[in-house]
Amino acid sequence: MESVHSINLFRRSVTYSPFLAVIDRYLVMIRYILLGAVVLVGAVTLSVYLYTSRGVARLTVERARLLASITQNKEKESMLMALRARINSLSQILKNQISIAPYIDTTLTLAHPPVLTSFSLGTGNTVQISLTIPTIDDAVTIVGAIITMNAEKKISNPILTSLALDKSGKVVMGLTYAVMLEKQ
């Protein structure tokens, strides 16, 4: 018998209705299934987190490596860009550049330094030269050479721009003529 002084509000044996008894058997199994599902979801979440964090760490290292590479190659790239711009400028210059060899050749046919005192290119294939000739006979020879070159169509439109005789007897002559360029 039970002691009179103890109060127990719970019954010692619990009786279930037949419906609850069936559900009680399945509740234990459902608890294990739910526990397994929680453990499985946790394991999947952990593995996804570890995989993602490893990928992020790998990408961070790759980013740092690429930034270092960019920093190292920044100066080289700027030099390359400057060189490219210069090459484009030089190609434009070379495309528009003319050869002054025919102008110099025709001038040197007439006179060499020290007789030839100045040489300059003008517009429209023109050349302006100044000559300081020692004697009048040499000046006549040069004028003859100019007439011959004009007849041979090496030069055209020769103009005597100045002619003077200085105190020492030298002839100072200024000439302008157009060089006939050969078509290429």
Q: What gyration radius follows from the Cα positions, in whole Å?
A: 53 Å
Quantity of strands, as a count: 4
Low-confidence stretches: none
Structural class: alpha+beta
The proportion of residues in beta strands is 15-25%
Number of domains: 2
- The averaged pLDDT comes out at 85
What is the count of helical runs?
3
Task: Provide a brief overview of the structure.
By secondary structure, this protein is of the alpha+beta class. The protein has two domains: 97 residues; 79 residues, 2-Layer Sandwich (Gyrase A, domain 2).
Structural features, described:
With 184 residues, this protein is an alpha+beta fold. It folds into 2 domains: 1-97; 101-179, Gyrase A, domain 2. The protein has 3 helices and 4 strands; from the N terminus they run H-H-E-E-H-E-E. It has helices spanning 18-96, 101-110, 136-151, and strands at 116-121, 126-133, 155-165, 171-179. It starts with 17 loop residues before the first helix and ends in a 5-residue tail after the last strand. The model has no long low-confidence stretch (mean pLDDT 85).
Topology:
Blueprint lengths: L17 H79 L4 H10 L5 E6 L4 E8 L2 H16 L3 E11 L5 E9 L5
Antiparallel strand pairs: 1-2, 2-4, 3-4
